[in-house]
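User: Structure please.
Assistant: Input sequence and predicted structure:
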Amino acid sequence: MTNSPIKQTPHLAPSTTTPSDHQLRSPKSNRGLRKLQSAHQLSSNYAALNTPSLISQQRQQQQQRTTSSSHNNQAPQIPPLPSHHRTRSTSDAVVPNASSSAAATKRVVASKKNPTNQNPREEMEGLVRQGPQGDIHTELSRLRHLVLCEGLYADSDGMIRIYVWLILLNAPAISTDSYLELIRRGASPAYSKIRNDTFRTLATNPLFKRRVSEASLIRLLNAVAWKLHDAKIEKLAEPALVNAANERGSPELQHASPIIKHAQGPPTTTATDGSEAGGTEPGIYVQGMNVLCAPFLYAARSEAEAFVAFHGFITKECPGYARGAMDGVHKGLALVDKCLAIVDPKLSSYLQSKHMKAELYAFASVLTMCACTPPLPEVLQLWDFLFAYGPHLNILCICAQLVIMRETLLTSPSPTKLLRSFPPLQAKLIVEITVSNLRKIPADIYDELVHHAE
C-alpha cells in the first residue's frame, strides 16, 4: 500500500529550516516535497501565516498617522486574525430584485396550499399504493387533477399507468385463476374473427410488437368474448324468470331489463359470433376491438390486469361501441360534425361543402379512441386524460385534431386525401385545445356526448 501525504508529513523537516538545511537536500527532493512542506507549514505555523503582509502594514501605518498625531510613536498594531471561513460566492448571493421577491412570494403561496410540500409524483404514488386517506370523491378529484397537470410517470416497479387506469375505470380486482379458466375453455364463438384481425393490430408499430405478442392479444380477446357471451346468455335468460303480468312482463320491470326494454321494437337477428348482431343486441366481438385492446396490453404488467381493464372499459364506459351494429360509434360520428360546427364553423362548413362528413374520415378514431393514430406513447397520454375526465371527450379530441390541421385543410382543394390518415398525435396540444373548446359546447350537446356510447 502506497504512503499517503498525511502519513509522510511527520517525516518532513520542521518548517523553520535554516539555509544550511536546504543546502543539504538535493534540488530534486526539494521539488518533490515542496507541496508536503507547504501543508506542514499550514498546520504548524498558523500564527505566522496569518501575519499581515508588508503592504497591509504600510497602509495601516498611514491610517494611524493621519488619524491622530498622538499615535505616531506607537508601534503598528496588528489586526486580529481573520476567520478562515469559505467566502460566499456571487452565484449564491441573494439579489434583492423584483423577480426574486416574486419567486419567494410564489413559494409562500405554494406552501400555504400544500403545507406538507409533498412532491406531486410522491402524492400520486401514495394515492395509488395506500388508497384514499380522506373523502374518496375528494381524493379522486385530486388524482384526476394530478393526471391532467403532472401526467403519469414510471415508478420504481414499472409503469404506474395501469394502476391509475384501473382506479379511474373502477375496475374490480380479478384473480389470475379466473382469467385462466376463461383461457382453458378454448376457442370462443368469435375466435375465427379474432384471428382475422389480430395479426394486423398495430403491425407497423415496433414498440407494440416488441412488448406484446399476437398470442397474448388472441388470448385476451378470446377471454373477453367468452365473458361477453356468458353475460349475453344470462340476459337472455332473465325474462323466463320474470313473473309476467302481461306479454311483456310486469309493468315495474319493463324498463329494468334491456331485453324487455327493447322487446317493443322489431325483433333482430343475432349471429353466432355476435359480431353481426342487431343494433340493440350486445355482441361479443366487433371489428376494431383488437386495436382498442392493444394499449391495455401494452400498459399492463400482466394479461389479467389488461383483461379486467379492457372488459370494464367496453362494458361500462362504451358498451355501444361493442354492439353488433356499433350504434354508439355512429352517434359519435354525428356528434363530431355537430361539435366541429360549434368550435370551428368555418372549417366545418368547408368540409361540408366538400361532402366530407365525419363518417368518412373519423370512423376509426371514434371506434378506437384515437388508438389507430400513432405514436403509441402519445395515445397512452391521451388515454390518461380520457380515463380521468370521461371517454366521451374523445369526440372533442378528434375535433381538436381537425383544428390543428385547420390551415392545411382550408388551403387544400381536396381535403379527402389529407384526412385519409390523421397526422401523428400530439397529446398535450390536443388536450389543451379540447379543454378550451369544452366551454363552447352547449349543455344539451354535452349531455349527448356523455350518453352517446351507452
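The two ends are 78 Å apart (CA to CA).
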